[in-house]
Amino acid sequence: MITLNHTGVSHTVFHLLGIPGLEDQHMWFSIPFFISYAIALLGNSLLIFIILTKRSLHEPMFLFLCMLAGADLVLSTTTVPQALAIFWFHAGEISLDRCITQLFFIHSTFISESGILLAMAFDRYVAICYPLRYTTILTNSLIGKIGVVIFLRSYGTIFPIIFLLKRLTFCRSNVLPHTCCEHIGLAQFSCDDIRVNIWYGFFVLMSTVILDVMLIFISYMHILRAVFHIPSQDARHKALNTCGSHVSVIILFYGPGIFSVLTERFGRHIAPHIHVLLANVCILAPPMLNPIIYGIKTKQIWDQVIHVLFPKVK
């Protein structure tokens, strides 16, 4: 992008439109947003409470799931209340600093979730390929270190974006056609050259999410190879069943994101509100459905949920 002449004015306040072109239907859109947020809050909070309070669930798989639930809470809380404020109260005004803060937490939490899914794939790999060494490999100390690395990687890679945006002069329109702020969506309203932003964003994507997808794919290739070498069909089915929830969550997390990126890149004739709705699906669906998937597919969690919600039921 070429550098344009500055007007001498750099916007410090922006206005989020919500879903462009469908402003008159915002009240209707608020219903699924509110329901999904309520389910995400209840489901993930309950999941974290059960895993932390039940010693029988202090296993690597459930500890990683607890991390995922915490990231889901951060992701949905960072985005959905802002969208509901736009839908209900037309409160789309947001300062530049607040906008950058929001996109920082959105992008870093998304990368955290990707890292946690990779850690969960590693957990399934060890459980199936090295079952006798599972507890000696995945110790609480190692799980803690993995959590710290995920945290440092996600926040460390996104932190420079704050300075990449702060250096820009925003002299174009201050109306953002979205329900929340995101890196390139904000940068493109600058009159400066944003090639550094674009290339750094590409570097972050390739070194985190794309790398995670490749490693998850490799781990599941090893898992499938190990499973099909199991002579017993029942044991083979049981091994695959332990991966069912994780695979469902992987598809739910990466699927809408990949589809959204493809439509953003190649769907230039697609209406803007479709792009915004797809981006919101990436934010709304995983936090809402992840606890449901694990609650239904994992017997240990389902039993504890029943015990917590209906203590008199035996």
Automatic annotation (TrEMBL):
Keywords: Cell membrane, G-protein coupled receptor, Membrane, Olfaction, Receptor, Sensory transduction, Transducer, Transmembrane, Transmembrane helix. Its main location: membrane. One of its GO terms (cellular component) is plasma membrane. The chain crosses the membrane at residues 27-50, 62-91, 103-122, 142-165, 198-218, 239-262, 274-296. It is a multi-pass membrane protein. Residues 43-294 form the G-protein coupled receptors family 1 profile domain. Pfam families: 7tm_4. It is found in: Cell membrane; Membrane. GO terms for molecular function: G protein-coupled receptor activity; olfactory receptor activity. Odorant receptor. Belongs to the G-protein coupled receptor 1 family. PANTHER family: OLFACTORY RECEPTOR, OLFACTORY RECEPTOR 56B1-RELATED. This is Olfactory receptor. It comes from Carlito syrichta. The gene is LOC103253800.
